[in-house]
């Protein structure tokens, strides 16, 4: 007896840049349908997962031979072929192009879209050839659509939006699932290793809980599809999946939890991941979004992960310190705002702690943002600063008229990729774009690890504001390197922001030239701001930054000679303290062997990885600890 041909269902997903992970989102949809669907024998669900945009191009070239004939044959048999897209900001533009292509060649396919980026259904239905948008959690809605795909069934399916005679219809809200263990694991259907047992992916994004108790106006997490109430999978489920992940050789586990550490079971999860690391050597790293309440439990988890070499960073999601911006963002009462003792304690412990800051939030302004920047530079060893992209489904998106929010589309992608906020009722367009220029300068020079110690040294001084210096440095770079970057208009500040990665790799091709320019600009800035007495010491710290900066080429070990106590100065600055006078005495001489991994332009292609490929001083760890203990400016911080 010949088996009946199956109906194709194609589920598309794509990773963000530099994150090659298993398709757990679409895998979850497939696993759910295979467990609960009523027509599992009818459908062949194919997970099509793209690593990047070039993978889409390759797929488009091949689909004519493989998928298109199968779709056409099924359509001729009177079957409803379904294509589904998991939409996020990083893939929306590419997927909309793909949807247009598929619907142009196969107009009868049923196109479904879900995910955070399309929760504002009005922006897509009627504008793009999407038939159904899933609102909220998608597993059950997807299953019900496959079991009854005909249009007359749609009104009875909760949690979807569609067009009916040109008018958007939204069915009743789908209630969130409270017992998450009812959801089968995506790992039941997603292969993690090949036939030879080698891992197919570098990483995996994994959720142990759903929900976010906060309702930040710039974020869709707690106000949109995921909801405010937190629910979690059982430890048995987590333990089973994590064993499968490390057994497959997956290097990195990145949690999709919104507030890791907020739930008491999170400590047990951290203990489990450390046990796996000790027994198997995997995972190599473990990343998450941390709880906004930095409780003793959260700090215990952080120190445990750090001790076991599993903590790439510990980020405090401050986002803004400006009172009005905090109020409008619904964050004014967050415990995360009491950050200083936590930051100093973690820095003293050597934990890679960082603060997150956003430029462009309604309620902020450039003057306050600059003060916030200096305050955080004095408090945190690392800052991650982001431009505010207005996201569909958020409170600020709904109030864009009330707050006079002006945006421009993300260059090269259009509105589908997001909208940069460049003005609102508290700052004008020129101020907004100058803020983008400032954060570009910080990303290159501090976050990119070109002169982080110099910036911190100056920020710790009374009466020095670093923002004008950062902007002056970037303007000097734009002038100096315009001939090497002729394809870019470096007079346009948003172009500079958008192409910061290209600028970063270009200027590091010739470190001697770059640091000569930086030294001149820093000296001119200090001279003009009546701080010329800092010039000699600043040049010494700058020489240390030069020795430690990321490099092109292969790995090297080079001995650098300094005319001051560079090791003690670095230890003090690493602990967010100023070097003492004896550290910077020019009569002192010191030689340090510095190992640089190289890789700029090949491994490292943007400033976001600068801290990962910076140079390291080769000496015994006891030397560092001794300096920190004995240094007069390094004050021990008691745990809170």
From TrEMBL:
As cofactor, the record names: [4Fe-4S] cluster
Annotated Radical SAM core domain residues: 198-428
Q: Does the keyword Iron apply?
A: yes
One family from Pfam that matches here is Radical_SAM
B12-binding domain residues: 6-156
Cross-referenced InterPro entries, in alphabetical order? BchE-like (IPR051198), Cobalamin-bd (IPR006158), Elp3/MiaA/NifB-like_rSAM (IPR006638), Methyltransferase_Class_B (IPR034466), rSAM (IPR007197)
Provide the alphabetized UniProt keywords: Iron, Iron-sulfur, Metal-binding, S-adenosyl-L-methionine
- Report the protein name in the record: Cobalamin-dependent protein
Task: Say which species the protein is native to.
Answer: Zhongshania aquimaris
At the highest ranks, the source species' classification is: Bacteria, Pseudomonadati, Pseudomonadota, Gammaproteobacteria, Cellvibrionales
């Amino acid at each position: 007896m010949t088996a009946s041909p199956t109906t194709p269902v194609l589920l598309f997903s794509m990773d963000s840049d530099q994150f090659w992970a298993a398709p757990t989102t679409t895998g979850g949809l497939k696993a759910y349908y295979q467990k609960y669907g009523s027509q599992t024998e009818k459908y062949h669900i194919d997970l099509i997962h793209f690593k990047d945009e070039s993978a889409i191009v390759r797929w488009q070239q091949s689909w004519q031979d493989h998928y298109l004939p199968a779709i056409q044959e099924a359509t001729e048999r009177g079957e409803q072929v379904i294509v589904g897209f998991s939409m996020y900001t990083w893939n929306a533009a590419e997927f909309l192009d793909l949807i247009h292509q598929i619907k142009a060649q196969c107009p009868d396919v049923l196109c479904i879209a879900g995910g955070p980026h399309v929760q504002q259904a009005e922006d897509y239905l009627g504008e793009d050839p999407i038939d159904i948008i899933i609102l909220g959690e998608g597993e059950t809605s997807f299953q019900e659509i496959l079991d009854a795909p005909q249009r007359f069934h749609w009104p009875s399916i909760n949690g979807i939006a569609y067009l009916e005679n040109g008018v958007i219809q939204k069915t009743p809200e789908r209630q969130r699932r409270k017992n998450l263990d009812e959801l089968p694991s995506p790992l039941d259907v997603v292969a993690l290793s090949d036939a030879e047992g080698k891992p197919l992916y570098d990483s995996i994004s994994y959720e142990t809980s759903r929900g976010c108790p906060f309702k930040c106006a710039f974020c869709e997490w707690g106000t949109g599809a995921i909801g405010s109430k937190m629910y979690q999978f059982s430890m048995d489920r987590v333990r089973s999946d994590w064993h499968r992940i490390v057994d497959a050789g997956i290097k990195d586990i990145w949690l999709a939890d919104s507030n890791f550490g907020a739930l008491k079971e999170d400590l047990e999860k951290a203990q489990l991941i450390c046990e796996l690391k000790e027994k198997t050597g995997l995972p190599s790293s473990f990343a998450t979004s941390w709880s906004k309440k930095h409780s003793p439990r959260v700090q215990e988890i952080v120190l445990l992960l750090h001790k076991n070499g599993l903590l790439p960073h510990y980020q405090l999601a401050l986002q803004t310190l400006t009172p009005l911006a905090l109020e409008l963002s619904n964050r004014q009462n967050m415990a995360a705002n009491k950050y200083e003792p936590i930051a100093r304690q973690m820095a003293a412990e050597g934990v890679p702690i960082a603060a997150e800051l956003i430029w462009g939030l309604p309620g902020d302004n450039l003057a306050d943002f600059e003060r916030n920047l200096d305050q955080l530079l004095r408090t945190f060893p690392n800052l991650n600063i982001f431009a505010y992209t207005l996201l569909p489904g958020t409170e600020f998106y709904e109030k864009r008229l009330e707050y006079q929010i002006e945006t421009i589309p993300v260059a090269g992608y259009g509105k589908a990729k997001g909208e940069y906020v460049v003005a609102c009722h508290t700052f004008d367009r020129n101020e907004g774009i100058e803020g983008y220029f400032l954060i570009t300068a910080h990303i290159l020079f501090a976050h990119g690890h070109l002169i982080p110690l110099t910036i911190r040294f100056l920020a710790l001084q009374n009466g020095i504001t670093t923002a004008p210096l950062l902007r002056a440095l970037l303007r000097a770079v734009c002038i100096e390197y315009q001939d090497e970057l002729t394809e870019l208009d470096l007079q346009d500040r948003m172009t500079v922001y958008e192409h910061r990665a290209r600028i970063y790799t270009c200027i590091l091709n010739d470190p001697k030239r770059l640091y000569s320019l930086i030294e001149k600009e820093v000296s001119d800035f200090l001279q003009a701001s009546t701080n010329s007495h800092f010039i000699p010491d600043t040049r010494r710290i700058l020489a240390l930054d030069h020795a430690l900066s990321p490099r092109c080429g292969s790995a090297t070990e080079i001995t650098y000679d300094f005319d001051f106590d560079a090791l003690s100065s670095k230890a003090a600055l690493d602990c967010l303290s100023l070097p003492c006078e004896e550290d910077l005495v020019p009569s002192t001489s010191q030689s340090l062997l510095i190992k640089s991994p190289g890789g700029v332009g090949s491994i490292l292609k943007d400033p976001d990885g600068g801290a990962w490929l910076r140079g390291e001083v080769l000496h015994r760890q006891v030397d560092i600890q001794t300096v920190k203990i004995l240094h007069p400016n390094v004050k021990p911080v008691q745990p809170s």
